[in-house]
Amino acid sequence: MIKEGQKAPNFNLPNQNGEDTSLSDFLGKKIVLWFFPKASTPG
Questions:
Q1: What angle do CA 14, 42, 39 make, to 5 degrees?
Q2: Which end of the chain is more exposed for a tag (fewer CB within 10 A), N or C?
Q3: For all residues of the chain together, what is the average pLDDT?
Q4: What pLDDT does 19 receive?
Q5: DSSP letters spanning 1-40
């Protein structure tokens, strides 16, 4: 598990256009990673 203050590991996910996007694509930029619970769960 990642702890507060640690760097996030690089990962790849499809964007809204179905193209692969990597966390490293944003190197040097400020971004927000937003994690949310699965649908239909309290959060």
A1: 30
A2: N
A3: 85
A4: 95
A5: -PPTTSPPPP-EEE-TTS-EEEGGGGTTS-------PPTT
